[in-house]
Structures are given as structure tokens and as C-alpha cells.
Amino acid sequence: MSAPPRRALLSCNPKARSGDFSLDEVRAILRAGGIEPVDPPEGADPCAAIRARAKDVDLVILGGGDGTMNAAAETLVESGLPLAILPLGTANDLARSLGLPLDPLAAARFIPTAQPQAVDLGWVNGHYYFNVASIGFSAELAGELTSEAKKRWGVFGYAVAAVRVLRRVRPFGVTIEHDGKVEKVTTIQVSVGNGRHYGGGMTVEEGAAVDDGKLDFYSLEIAHWWRLLALLPALRRGTHGKAADVRAFKTQEIRLTTRKPRPVNTDGELTTHTPAHFKVMPKILTIYAPPPSERAGASDLAQLGNRLLGTSPQRS
Predict the structure, then answer these.
(1) What percent of the chain clears pLDDT 70, i.e. is strictly above it?
(2) I need a labelling partner for 114 at 20 to 30 A (CA). Which of 53, 137, 171, 182 fits?
(3) SS3 state at 297
């Protein structure tokens, strides 16, 4: 006798950039692979849907971008259910970090034969995050970049908003406490990464991984805003930590304090403020993804997967 089909909650964020993507073909792909999709209660957002269906399904398939995954992280941890990702967002940085196909139909074809992989989450002031948390320039950028701009312009919207924010960015002081050390610096941005990619193509650190049990910290202690433009290629490669005016290290726990409360951006959403206490939560969630040995250069793997499946990457 054949095994009964696995049941998967299929919930999409309609506000994601491609939130209006038709799921009919996705459902057909899943059923052909032995997964029966279960619809969320009418009108329920992804978090409410997970709570409502948690006892009735074997896994959760979330359609959306990094903000959708961020918002659902706590509920996913509470449910104990493995996550599969249908990339429908603007940047889809978590999918890139995991080496997943960026085309939603290619991602759907991947799910039935994939194995769940244990991944870490970052944690700051009670909020989970997958990719990176930032204070300073990136947090101001998150406040500037509206959902409408992301839907209209995609990743290009990040560049447009960054130019506007760059003109008004000012250095600020921050006290860094980690591994028994206390350091006071002046910076335009501090970031605490859990995953590999963020911000529509930036790399936290060239060797960073979402399951390495470490946080990757960096601080941009630059004298002039134009220096950020010069650092851009290194920020994309994840080699910026080698620059003389960039402080970078790995840790498992860190506290950041500023003179006045400053917003903290987690995976593109403003969720808390300083003082900020960060920790890594090792292997706290499972996601259907390629194993770590196949995940090096995750963005390249994602693009290769799209080509092998005969699809073109979705604009994200």
C-alpha cells in the first residue's frame, strides 16, 4: 500500500510582491509529489493560519518574502512544524541563503523530495529573525522603503531608497558588549547577521551560514558617506570585514546600547529598538532545503536549480 499523502498548510501573504500569484499549478505539483495542500481559514494571515491548522498538517508552505517569514518565525517555532518556502517576495534573501529555487513553480517542484534541514534563528529583544538585524543606515532604509515601492520597483527599489537615505545618514555612537569585552565606537550602521544574504543581494559575511551556530557582527565606522559606495562591492561579496574601517567578528551573544533609542531592522521590518540584546538560537527550526554540503554559494545554486528545471528566476 502506498503511504497516505502528507498534508501541508499552503498559506501566502497577499501583500508580498507576487502575493497575487496563482496557486493552482502549485497545488497540482504538490499533489503529484504526494503532498495534499490544505488551505488556511478564510481571511487568516499566515500566523493565524498556522495556529489554526497546526494539528491537522505535517508541514507549512509559506508564500511570501523575508518579511512574511520573519513575521511567522515565532509561530513556526511554537508549532514545531517544518517550513517550506514559496518565494514570492522582493528580495527572497532567506531562499537565496538556503540555495532554493527563486521561481515559485521550481520551488514547488523541489518540496516533495526535499529533506528538512535544521537552521538557526537570530533573536533580539524577544523577536526572531532569519537573515540580519541592523541599526543605523539599514534601519532608516527599511523605514523609507514602502511595500508599494517594493511591489513596483522590486530590488531596484532598494537602490532608489538608499540614495535618499544616504544623503541624510549621520554617524552615531554605540556601546558593544560581547565575549567579556566592552567597546565604544562611532558608526553609521551595525549589523548582526544570522543567515548569509540580506538587503536584496548583500552578503553578511563570505563564510556565513544559517546553521553555523554563530552571529556575524559588523560595524561600518566610516568617515564619509561616499566611503559606503566604495565598500559596496565588498558588501555584496561579504568581504567588507577586511577593510580597515569595518569592525567584524563572530559571536553567539551581543548587547548594543545607544544614547537614544534607535530602531532595529530585522529582515527588512522595524521590530524593536535599542538597547538591544542579541542571541543565536541554534537549530531551533527545520526548513526544506538542500543539505549544507550543497549550499556553498547559495545564490549561484539557486540560479543553477532554476536553469535545470527549465524555469527563469522570478523578479524578486
Answers:
(1) 82
(2) 53
(3) coil
For the stretch 255-288, pLDDT in tens is 999 999 999 999 988 999 999 999 999 999 999 9
Which helix (H) or strand (E) segment is 117 a member of?
A: strand 116-124
| Alpha-carbon distance values, 196 to 22, 26, 186, 207, 279 (Å) | 29, 27, 25, 8, 16
Can you give the pTM of this predicted structure? 0.85
Grid cell in block for residue 179: 565575549
Q: C-alpha grid cell for residue 253?
A: 551573544
Residue 92 has φ and ψ, to the nearest 5°, of 55, 45
Q: In angstroms, what CA-CA distances link 285 with 115, 166, 261?
A: 13, 36, 30
Other CB atoms within 10 A of residue 281 CB: 17
What would the pLDDT profile of 97-127 be if each residue is shown by its tens digit?
999 999 999 999 999 999 999 999 999 999 9
Q: What would the mean pLDDT of 137-149 be, rounded to a whole number?
A: 61
List Cα–Cα distances, 118 to 201, 249, 283, 313, in angstroms.
24, 24, 5, 26
- For 137, the grid coordinates are 543606515
